[in-house]
Specification:
about 850 residues, mainly beta, 11 helices
Length: about 850
């Protein structure tokens, strides 16, 4: 052979070998684009990448404050260097795991490094905690990868270098999953959203005889213990289960295809696998590919296999798998029953919306999927467009379609036959005229926050379906920007955002924006929380340089601790002095119904143990604080962590805007109006209040002739109503300024405009005025169905209009509204005493 050709062939062979070899390397700044992506991807510069021809994995580096997210894990030693953060099939960018912490690895480590780079066929990253730095208990952790492996061998060795026995615990920890199980000594987990089609499994390969990982045991002085497990990833839990099983012993293959009776693939099916015989165990779920095919490895044995899919009858089968052979199992499923939606606005434009499927006449309630996803959450489906199809079981349903609180609703009783598709078409009319105002919600979350697993696209679809037009990005302890996802979903014309964060810790939480995320760094460059909310507020105010329009708010505030009794000793000390001047707003409404008309600063309820306890009402305390000169704005948010239940829409704010087009919303303008208190807080009614000279919420006017006339107008869509309008003067609710549908029927209407009156408010001193419009005898059930918001009452109010009575400027009157400022450690007995004293006091 020609020597030049031979050399070329040898070079090609060596290149092929190099490409096939596994790799381990520390991720440099110019390699950040090589990090795998996915819903739960958390890799940053300085982490370690392990990859072969099958998988990609990220091991966290020994970096400052290194953790996957806020929730991994809490506490002073909550950092998790040396743990597995990401694991996905090579090139699929479908990471669905937050963390795998071998033997509950947590806290500081001595080093993380590449032990073997893979050029010799094996790649290893090791994490070491020396005994000298860890009270005499050394920990050696290795992540090992070879070509052809669809997972990692993870070996943990603990060595007791101290003179005393040590209690140790070898149980592994992984998060976050909803559907988990175990069979034959192998633990498995499905992606939170099954439609992401990813699964994980791990099982022990080597361990001392008798070791039970879930039970702590004593490790004698000078002794050591070593455990090796295999962690696998697949397109489903069963696939990953089979990969682990193959590492432990002989397996066979189970393959097949899922089609409907017409031969069409059923890619949405789930294949539930259980062992049968003496030991019945749940092996997990397999997911077919787009063509309906599936192929998994299983240990030898007999299995029950159930093919299931929403809108179709289950197909149960049994199969026997023998080692070294392939068993074939196909399924023919019925044609799915479904509802096809075609929803438009008045102009025929498709638009985001929400559909509810409320079972009736004995039909079993539907479960379309986990509550933290948009496309099928319990009995709802949130869509980014008006043309969509939802598979549901045959039966009778009341189907309701809504798009927030400005649009009409569509409702139809549907009887769905097996295999049928019902066409649901209609127009959602924009009934409520909000021209010049945009809806906003300044506090929501997705999986980037760490304390929930709601997909970020799911959160944005949820916002759009509920018609929130401006929603700053406020993930926990991470600078983030939703704009790329909004654009990818085609929702730039529906919703606007600005990058920001929620600075979160054990006490006050603060939202702030704007910021510039720094991708592939810890927390995207976010600051660190401080227990003193004043320091936290100042930090946010100046982070990445001063910004005049930067917004800072306190979330779900502890009004007592923040503004009255900072040290919690039961005596008023003024709270954190100066805090009120460092923030722009507080959340008087955070998800739950309003107590703005409660007339007291607390209620007596039950705690988690069922015992009576005192619960503070922040709305009333806010009114007390207004009378003491506090001028931060009241805010209404949802603080959503899921889509169904704790989703968005229950509360929102309205702020003035030069443009009604969400794509043209200027966050500077929105923020300036928010700072000035030019806002309305509402669960549904669109409230507008003006004085005769045009003064609205947040601004100051003069009294004329000892009174002020308020023009009050309330609009509601066709599924919301109000029956009471109350004017608060300096926080007090006078019966003379209380108007109800029962007592004042001529003032209330039944169309879109529910109330449109001028109310004269007599005054005797400088006063702040707040109008509350509510439906005391109605709820939000049409718009929210079985979700928690359904029980809330329609309610709207605004930030105060300040009235200068004597021309010397506005001066707060100091009135605490018949109650002392509440303090910490209040007993139930003291609360009752104050309530009784207030009731008997002259009004």
């Amino acid at each position: 052979m020609n020597p030049r050709i031979l050399s070329l062939l040898m070079l090609l062979a060596s290149l092929a070998l190099a490409q096939a070899a596994p790799e381990a390397f520390e991720v440099a700044p110019d390699q950040k684009d090589q990090l795998p992506q996915g819903k739960e991807a958390d890799g940053i510069i300085g982490d370690f990448l392990l990859r072969n021809d099958k998988i990609e994995a990220v091991i966290s580096g020994n970096l400052t404050l290194r953790r996957a997210n806020m929730s991994t894990f809490y506490g002073a030693d909550g950092i998790t260097p040396g743990c597995l953060y990401d694991l996905t099939l090579r090139g699929e960018n479908n990471d669905q795991i937050t963390i795998f912490a071998p033997a509950q690895q947590q806290g500081a480590v001595s080093w993380v490094r590449v032990a073997r780079d893979g050029h010799d066929g094996e790649a290893v990253v090791e994490c070491v905690v020396t005994g000298a730095s860890h009270g005499g208990l050394a920990r050696y952790q290795q992540y090992q990868l070879r070509d052809g492996w669809q997972g990692l061998r993870i070996t943990t060795t603990l060595v007791n270098e101290s003179a005393e026995p040590k209690k140790v615990f070898m149980m592994d920890k992984w998060t976050n999953f909803l559907r988990v199980g175990s069979a034959l000594g192998i633990a498995w987990a499905d992606a939170v959203d099954p439609s992401d089609k990813a699964g994980y499994a791990f099982g022990l390969l080597e361990a001392p005889p008798g070791l039970i990982p879930t039970k702590p045991f004593e490790l004698a002085s000078g002794a050591s213990v070593t455990v090796t497990r295999f962690l696998a990833v697949g397109h489903s839990p069963v696939e990953a289960f089979g990969v682990v099983a193959a590492q432990r012993g002989p397996v066979g293959q189970l393959t097949g295809t899922v089609r409907d009776v017409n031969g069409a693939p059923v890619a949405s099916a789930e294949i539930l696998v259980r062992t049968t015989g003496d030991f019945d165990a749940n092996v997990g779920v397999a997911h077919p590919d787009a063509e309906g095919h599936f192929s998994v490895a299983l240990p030898e044995g007999k299995y029950s296999v159930t093919f299931t899919d929403s809108g179709r009858a289950d197909v149960p089968q049994t199969v026997e798998v023998k080692a070294g052979t392939t068993a074939k199992l196909d399924a023919a499923m019925a044609v799915a029953s479904a509802i096809h939606f075609h929803i438009t606005d008045d102009a025929g434009r498709t638009l985001p919306c929400k559909a509810q499927f409320l079972a009736s006449d004995g039909t079993e309630p539907v479960n379309l999927g986990p509550q933290n996803r948009a496309h099928g959450c319990v009995d709802q489906y949130h869509s980014e467009k008006g043309d969509f199809r939802v598979q549901i079981p045959p039966g009778k349903y009341r189907v309701v379609v809504t798009r927030g609180i400005e649009y009409s609703h569509l409702e139809e009783q549907v009887t769905l036959a097996p295999g049928a598709t019902h066409e649901f078409a209609g127009k959602l009319q924009r009934l409520v005229n909000t021209h010049g105002w945009v809806s906003a919600d300044y506090h929501n979350h997705s999986t980037q926050s760490g304390d929930n697993t709601c997909g970020t696209p799911d959160r944005i679809i949820n916002l759009a379906a509920e018609h929130i037009q401006f929603a700053p990005t406020t993930e926990h302890n991470r600078l983030y920007d939703w704009r790329p996802i909004i654009e990818r979903l085609g929702l730039s014309g529906e919703i606007q955002t600005v990058p920001g964060m929620e600075l979160t810790g054990a006490a006050a939480h603060l939202n702030s924006f704007p910021f510039k995320p720094e991708p592939f760094t810890q927390d995207n460059g976010a600051p660190v929380w401080h227990p003193d909310p004043r320091i936290a507020a100042i930090t946010l105010r100046d982070w990445q340089g001063a910004e005049p329009d930067r917004w800072v708010q306190i979330n779900h505030p502890d009004m007592v601790k923040d503004f009255i009794d900072a040290d919690g000793d039961g005596y008023a000390d003024g709270g954190f002095h100066g805090l009120a001047q460092l923030i722009d707003g507080i959340e008087t409404q955070n998800g739950d119904g309003s107590e703005i008309l409660a007339g007291r600063p607390f209620v007596i309820g039950k705690n988690a143990e069922g015992k009576e306890s005192v619960h503070m009402l922040r709305e009333f305390i806010w009114l007390q604080m207004l009378n003491r000169g506090h001028r931060y704005a009241a805010m209404a948010v949802n603080d959503a962590h899921s889509v169904y239940g704790n989703g968005v829409g229950g509360w929102r704010m309205y702020m003035p805007s030069k443009s009604d087009n969400p794509a043209e919303i200027d966050w500077h303008e929105n923020c300036r109006h928010a700072k000035a208190g030019h806002s309305y807080l509402t669960t549904g009614p669109f409230l507008q209040v003006r004085t005769e000279d045009g003064t609205g919420p947040g601004d100051t006017t003069r009294a004329v002739g000892g009174s002020v006339k308020l023009s009050v107008r309330v609009q509601c869509t066709d599924w919301i109503d109000i029956d009471r309008v109350q004017v608060l003067v300096n926080g007090r609710a006078s019966s003379a300024l209380n108007f109800t549908r029962a007592s004042n029927p001529k003032m209330f209407k039944d169309g879109v405009v529910k109330f449109d009156e001028t109310i004269e408010v007599p005054l005797r001193e400088d006063s702040h005025l707040i109008v509350v419009a509510c439906g005391e005898h109605s709820d939000l059930s049409v718009g929210y169905g079985t979700s928690a918001q359904a029980k809330m009452h329609p309610c709207a109010y605004h930030n105060p209009i300040f009235v200068d009575f004597d021309g010397h400027g506005f001066t707060p009157n100091g009135d605490t509204l018949g109650f002392p400022l509440p303090v910490a450690k209040m007993t139930v007995e003291e609360a009752r005493r104050q309530i009784e004293a207030n009731a008997s006091a002259p009004k």
